[in-house]
Each structure stands twice: as structure tokens, then as C-alpha cells.
Amino acid sequence: MLLGMWLFPKLVLLCFVSLGTGNVPPAPDAVSAEEALKYLLLLVDVNDLYDHSLGTYDFDLVLMVAEKSQKDPKEYLPFLNTLKKMETNYQRFTIDKYLKRYEKAIRHLSKCGPEYFPECLNLIKDKNLYNEALKLYPPNSQQYKDISVAYGEHLMQERLYEPGGLVFARCGAHEKALDAFLACGSWQQALCAAAQLHLSRDQLAGFGRSLAGKLVEQRKHRDAATVLEQYAQDYEEAVLLLLEGAAWEEALRLVYKYNRLDIIETNIKPSILEAQKNYMAFLDSQTATFSRHKKRLLVVRELKEQAQQAHLDDDVPRGRESDLFSETSSVVSGSDMSGKYPHSNSRISARSSKNRRKAERKKHSLKEGSPLEDLALLEALNEVVQGTEKLKDEIHQILKVLFLFEFDEKGRELQKAFEDTLQLMERSLPEIWTLTHQQNSAAPVLGPNSTANSIMASYQQQKTSVPVLDAELFIPPKINQKTQWKLNLLE
Q1: In the prediction, which pLDDT does 365 show?
Q2: Ranges for the ELP1 three-helical bundle domain (predicted)?
């Protein structure tokens, strides 16, 4: 319907243009264009019809519509007279801008000559027409570069650093591209941009050191080492960064590449032994934390079951009327209890699902006796398991170099400690993430022997202990047993 209302005036105006130019032979009983226009004005808003006629760039048609619409000549004659004095492309640009047809406007303005480009660029920036504008100029023109620079700056303001850098790089604004790529951490592109700035050897080395520092802050030690070795010609510092990032084999490669075997004794072996010691301490901490949380979780679950059973034992039949009063009071008390804790729907309904989940997680407290302590313990246990699982590749890498440098006892010690930790967690998963507790927490107890109090007690426990957003906590973490992390040479 809306599409038809939008097309109707345009179709009618096309008919008027045809009638006015004599392209269509009139039928014997055909009405005149003026009569048809008078009738059309009864159906269509006069201002809309005037704008549509103006959009045809046909001034005879515009005057006909304006005169028949009984508009005040002072409203349109000065504007039309000004338009008639303009060059054709600038005239159409002015009309399109007036009608807010900005894409057409810049298309006409781009044909008006270079002296009008500043006006065109301002409109491009104001209406965010960068992609459309770039199609209007050849890539090797100054106008194309100016539009690209403006586009890149717009993307930078929107914190879209990598797209901004690509736009800068394509138009040859390499200095701006360098800043953009540094901002987004695209170090390879940053070095490409730096190379096109024709920096001196010392300048490039200084830039490489600065870039490597930024990469270390992002814990990208391998990338930082590559930059230092290849652009700052500092392989010694590169080796130290690789050792800091536990990239043992890459550090060895550089040592043998530059024939600096002395670094093996002075730096590599001590770093490996220190890393083994740190891994052992970390695994001890993980095991202790896991066991403590598991023990406490079992206690909390037992206390909750006892409390629920005690509540059900108090449910003595007192007649039909008493049950109704009891049910009502339970609903009220459940509402009161849910209001005591901060999971108000009104506070979180406006947030995204991700933010709501974060907000709910903040309410979990490991403090003993807190309402959601069991969920906090589940979350903490999940994090411990996932953190340990992610160590498999790191452990495998250090086991290889421990064996390589004949630190067999240290390697076996670490391998056994990691295996014991994984086995402890694997054995505990069914006990921690039990199907029984998932079902008990997911739905109230129903059945022919249930009373109003027992149902409401179960429902209240669900509301106060397991918000819907925390359902994922009842999904056990996965330990991938197919991952080959052990080194059989140490068996």
C-alpha cells in the first residue's frame, strides 16, 4: 500500500510529461493535462506532488503543478528563478539536495568541476556517503585520495582501526595507515606501511623495538621476537622474549641459526627449569583449590537437602482451608525472599543477554552461607578444570625440552603431577555435575503425593538458588582425552 502511494504521483507525473511533449497521441475522449492535474490534487498532498515534479527537473511541469495548487508564487518563484540561472549539473545537485536525494546530489556535483569538490566533500562527510563517492572518481585522482582519507578518519573515530588502515593504505596515506594498524595490533600491515615511508635503518630498528614492546604487552611473544630479529637485528633480545613466552623450540632455532650455543647454558636451560618449577607450583595450587571447592560443594548440597526436608516435615495436614492459607503464605514468602536478593528482572531486562549473564555472575559469592554459594562453587570448579585443560600443549612443549636437555627426573615429576591432576578432575566430574542435582534444581517437585507447601518449597528453592541464566553452570566442562600431551619417552 505504501509503495503504491509512493509510486502513484511519479507515474501520473510521467503521464503529464508525455502529454506535455506530445509523445502520446491523445484519445478522442481524453481529458486535458490541466483537468487531470486538478483531479490529482484532490487525491495527493500538494507539497508531495510539488516535490515529485521538481525531481523531474522539468520546470514547465513544476510551474503547472505550483499554479494549479494555489500555492503563493512568493513561495516558489524566487527558488525556481535561481535554479534556472544555474549550470545544469549544479542545478540538479541543488534540487537533489533540497529533496534530500544526497546520492544523486553528489553524483551531479562531481560533474561540476574541481572547484566544487570541497562542497562535495563536505556533503560526503555530513551524510556518510564515502562508498558511493569513491565510485565517482578515478583511483589515481586527488579527489579519490581526499575522500579515502576522510573515510579512513571516519572509521578511526568509530574505532574501526583495521578497516581504516586498509582504506589509508589503498590510497597511499601510509603514515595514517601505520597509526591505524598499530592501534588494532596488525603488526604485519604496520611494518608494510613503515617500509613505504622509506625510513632509515636506525628509524626502522627503533620502530621495530617500539612495536615489539606493544606486542609483548599483548602477550604475543613470538611475534615480538620476529620483529626484533628481522627489523631491529637483535636476535639476543628476541631469544629472551621467546623464553619469556615459553616458545622453547623457536628460541633454540635462533640460537643455532646465529651459532650462539652459549645462550643454551646461560639462558635456555635455567628458563626451562624455572618454568618446570612454576608449573609444579601451579598444579599444586589448582589441585588444592579444586579439592577444597569440591568438598565445600558437597557440604552445601547436603545442608540444602536437609533444609528442604525439614520444611517438608513441617507440612502437617490441617484441612482444605488450611492448605489454601498455607499455599498463599508460601507464595507471599517466596516473593519476599526473591525480592531480598538482587536478581530483579526490572534491573536486568534492558541489558543484552551477555551483560545479564555477567550481572548474574557477580552475585555469586564463595562466602560460606551465601544464597548462591553452590553456584559460585560450580563456577569456580568449572574455571579450574578449563584452566588445567588449556595447559596440555604447554606441558607437552616443556616436556620435550626437558627430555632434550636430560632433565628426565624433572620431566617425569611434571608429567606425573599433571596426569594426577587431570585424573582427579575426571573422576570428580560425575560427582560434581550430577544429573540428580540438575533435575532437582531445574523444576519443582510434582506428583499425586505433593501438597501445596511441598510444591512451593521446591519452587522457592529453585528461584533462590538457580536463576535461569545460570543453567549453563550445570553443564560439566569437557576434558579432551584424545589430546596427546604426554611424552612417552619419559615413561
Answers
A1: 78
A2: 262-432
Distance between CA atoms of residues 126 and 121, nearest Å: 8
DSSP 270: H
DSSP designation for 488: G
pTM of the predicted model as reported, rounded to 2 decimal places: 0.70
CA triplet 298, 302, 305: central angle to 5 degrees? 140
Nearest alpha-carbon partner for 459 in 443, 435, 438, 436: 443
CB count in 10 Å sphere of residue 150 = 17
Look at residues 116, 146, 119, 118 and name the one whose alpha carbon lies nearest to residue 134: 146
Measure the CA–CA gap between 460 and 371, rounded to whole angstroms.
12
Q: Which helix (H) or strand (E) segment is 265 a member of?
A: none
pLDDT exceeds cutoff 80 at 235: yes
Per-residue pLDDT band for 457 (boundaries 50, 70, 90) equals low
Angle at 339 between CA 334 and CA 344, to 5 degrees: 120
How do the residues of the chain divide into helix, strand and coil, expressed in percent and rounded to 5? 75, 0, 25
Q: What is the pLDDT of residue 329?
A: 41
Dist. CA 272–CA 252, nearest whole Å: 12
CB 279 within 8 A of CB 414: yes
Retrieve residue 457's grid coordinates: 518449597
Confidence band of 406 (pLDDT split at 50, 70, 90): very high
226 vs 8, residue with greater confidence? 226
Residue linked to cell 606501511: 193
331: cell is 507464595
The whole-angstrom separation of Cα 46 and Cα 182 is: 56
User: Of the candidates 226, 304, 289, 330, which has an alpha carbon nearest to the alpha carbon of residue 428?
Assistant: 289
pLDDT (0 to 100) of residue 418: 96
Q: How far is CA 286 from CA 238, 362, 410, in A?
A: 32, 22, 19
Q: Which three cell numbers stand for residue 448?
A: 499425586
Find the DSSP H helices in 136-268: 142-157, 161-171, 174-184, 187-195, 201-217, 221-231, 235-244, 248-257, 262-263
H or E segment at 69?
A: none
Least confident of 330-344, 381-395, 397-411, 433-447: 330-344
d(CA 372, CA 367): 9
